[in-house]
Amino acid sequence: MTDSTPEELDVASRLREVEVELLARWPETRIDPTLERVETLLDLLGSPQRSVPIIQVAGTNGKTSTARMVESLLRAFGLRTGLFTSPHVESMTERIALAGRPIDPVRFVSTYEDIEPYLRLVDERSQTPVSYFEAMTTLAYAAFADAPVDVAVVEVGLGGRWDATNAADAQVAIVTPIDLDHVNYLGDTLEEIAAEKAGIIKPGSVVVLAQQRLPAAEVLLRAAAAADATVARETVEFGVLHRELAMGGQVLSLQGLAGSYEEVFLPLYGEHQARNAACALAAVEAFFGATTERLRIDLVIEGFGSVTSPGRLEVVKRGPTVLLDAAHNPAGAAATAAAVQESFSFTRLVGVIAIMVDKDARGVLEALEPVLDEVVVTQNSSTRSLLAGQLAEFAEEIFGGHRVTVEPRLADALDTGIRLAEAAGDLGGAGVLVTGSVVTVGEARRMLRGVR
Question: What CATH number labels 7-305?
Answer without folding.
Answer: 3.40.1190.10
